[in-house]
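In response to reviewer comment 3 from the previous cycle, which asked for concrete evidence that the modeling workflow produces usable outputs, we include below a single protein chain processed end to end. The sequence was submitted unchanged, and the resulting structure tokens are shown without manual editing.
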Amino acid sequence: MIEYAKLFVEFCFGLGMFINAILFVPQIVRLFKTKNPVGVSLTTFIGFNIIQIFSFLHGYIHNDYIFMFGMLLSLLLCGCISFLIILYKFRRNRIN
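The workflow returned the following structure tokens.
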């Protein structure tokens, strides 16, 4: 019985890591559609990126591949948001 509980927790953890990463997608879509970074904090997303890098490294040290994959996916999607914020702020400042 305990083995099934452990498998269930592992499955839910993996699913949670995937959902955590996917939650960045609506922000990416909004930024891509509007091309307007107003109201989106670059500082916050850079902070997320730093946390995700160290979380990935923590997973690597502890051979936690589910965690590593989740953090890598989050880092890629969150990094995309950071890139779009910088891109659209730079473009907007260049036009003005």
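Residues 2-95 form a domain with the Monooxygenase fold (CATH 1.20.1280.290). We consider this sufficient to address the reviewer's concern, and the full set will be provided in the supplementary archive.
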